[in-house]
Amino acid sequence: MQLKVTNSPFTEGQVELLNKLLPTLTDAQIQWLSGYMTFYRAGTASAESAVALQEPETAAAASALPAEAVAVAPAVPREATVLFGSQTGNSQRLAGKLAGKLKEQGFEVTLSAMNAFKTNGLKKAPYLFIVASTHGEGDPPDNALTFYEFLFGKRAPKLDGMKFSVLALGDTSYEFFCKTGQDFDNRLAELGAERIVDRIDCDVDFDGPSSKWLANVIDAVTAAPAAGAAASGAAAAASAGATATLTESEYSRSNPFKAEVLTTINLNGRGSDRETRHLEISLEGSGLTYEPGDCVGIYPENDPALVDAIIAEMKWDGSENVVSGKDGEEGQLRNALLRQLEITVLTRPLLEKAAAFTENGKLAELVQAENKDAFKAYANGRDLLDLLQDFGPWKLTGADLASILRKLPPRLYSIASSNKANPEEVHVTIRKVEYEVHGRKRGGVCSVQVSERLEAGDSLPIFIQNNPNFKLPANPETPVIMIGPGTGVAPFRAFLEEREELGSDGKTWLFYGDRHFVTDFLYQTDWQRMLKDGVLTKLDVAFSRDSEEKVYVQHRMLERAAELHTWLQEGAHVYVCGDEKHMAHDVHAALLTIVEQQGGMSAEAAAAYVSELQANGRYQRDVY
Ligand code: NAP
Prior knowledge:
Layout: H1 12-21, H2 27-41, H3 49-53, H4 56-63, H5 67-71, E1 79-85, H6 90-104, E2 108-113, E3 127-133, H7 145-152, E4 163-169, H8 179-190, E5 194-195, E6 200-202, H9 207-223, E7 238-240, E8 257-266, E9 276-282, E10 295-298, H10 304-313, E11 321-324, E12 329-332, H11 333-339, H12 348-354, H13 361-366, H14 372-379, H15 384-390, H16 398-404, E13 411-414, E14 425-431, E15 434-437, E16 440-443, H17 445-453, E17 459-465, E18 480-483, H18 490-502, E19 508-514, H19 517-520, H20 524-533, E20 538-543, H21 553-559, H22 561-569, E21 573-578, H23 580-598, H24 603-615, E22 619-623
Parallel strand pairs: 1-2, 1-3, 2-7, 3-4, 4-5, 4-6, 18-19, 18-21, 19-20, 21-22
Antiparallel strand pairs: 8-9, 8-17, 9-14, 10-13, 10-17, 11-12, 15-16
Helix pairs in contact: 2-4, 10-15, 21-23, 23-24
Residues 414, 431, 485-488, 490, 513-515, 544-545, 550, 552-554, 577-579, 582-583, 586, 622-624 line the site of NADP nicotinamide-adenine-dinucleotide phosphate (NAP).
């Protein structure tokens, strides 16, 4: 039904005009107009006449704002800078969320990866919000490194007058939990900035604490007197240093999709001492899509044998009701231990809480600050069953246990397929992790489940984790060099399938390594076909245990130094995926050597060249 202006304070002529105009307006135009009329009424129409004269895109941006952001123009305008340091995309996603909320409050927002942010603008930023994760031994993520070095360097400016807050992401099972976020937080205060909201350090289950931080920040900025230069509600806009392509689906990390496993194949040949599963998973009906370089998150199930051993150790029966899982659901203890709670990792917060449920004073002693090394030695390689066996007698019920355990976090795997080549499917490569330590056989929760207990037809709760920091060059003609030993090769199957699907002519070079040629050559037939079809230009392999001397991918890189350097000079992008601790470090060193020797540079100049590659997105790593 079309509403008409009838009974109104307008003249007949005005009514006619309105009745002609109103039915032709889109929702966005109506919203824009309602904001404009408020300015008009407030007598600011002439000052804001730019609103009426804006380019169509800008007007559309303004119309996308909630009505109150346009209507209630802040008396003193606001600007906020939101920076993220993100390896897997979580910090980036949360930073984007904060930017959105600030925009809703009428802020002009600059959203950027730290390395992409022009540091000469830092001093002038009235509000700075940082979301940063921590990696390895307390290291900043790759896309935070240069900003981190700048802030801790001699050229860091005084930041008096700036208001800031930091959200830190990390994992309590690592010694340097949330160190990068803590470093930023301390340093900004040291430089004179004012902390308007306390830092929150998030463990792997970051949904609750990060939402709290976002809410605290919004409360603080709406309460605080505004700082900064002129901006109107209508001009609020965000610029992102590296914008994420967010998946449009109702399914997400907090609402995973139950996906059917279509195929599970062991990629290792008979006689291999490894087992690597290639899973093909259906996305049908989920609306989930992905890009090469993205990851799949899988919520695994704990080993039923370990769960039953824990229940037996405590002489429980497993059917008692406990509160656990997302949003404090109630369910049976055994089910919670199987699907919702982490039982294979011992963290310091867990041991501290557990100490309250035993009279065995040794546990309280172990978590004392001065016994850091003893704690580390104990927690390393042990699980919940060890803890329960080693520190009884316990005064612990199943409900107590459920209340102190961390939620079972999802496992992320690099996607091994192109969505364009495989609509409604996603492929992953999962190597079984198993070992014996402290007198018991142990293994990776997800990889063992996938290898031992998962069949085609079963389902897995999954989500897509976008990774904007590991992406093919926008130009399909740009050469790419891919270095991925072991399962680190997975995303390069996705890269090459994508290039094949796009029919791109850009040169591609894969460095792959594993233990034995005969049994461990993952996706061998795929690479051979791609070589034949020209999708893969060059392949260099290093099988480490087929010869007396170990041969690794970086040795092959050094053997091909001249050609690799030529590719770099031609603008090639370099990608590294796989082990962070050793391989990524050694490959980085090889790259530096190649640039130094082939480019005839000093070590410092070579380091600057490689840093520049990294800052320009021409050297990207997905390593852990
Ligand atoms: P792996 O068996 O540990 O290693 C594959 C090959 O790399 C083997 O031939 C191994 O040789 C060799 N290697 C060992 N040390 C090396 C070094 N310093 N430099 C170069 N090569 C070296 O492979 P995997 O079991 O598949 O595990 C790969 C690692 O990558 C795991 O840590 C996994 O978690 C990680 N990963 C990460 C991602 C990601 O970040 N997205 C994706 C997939 C896998 P030897 O064993 O003979 O020494």
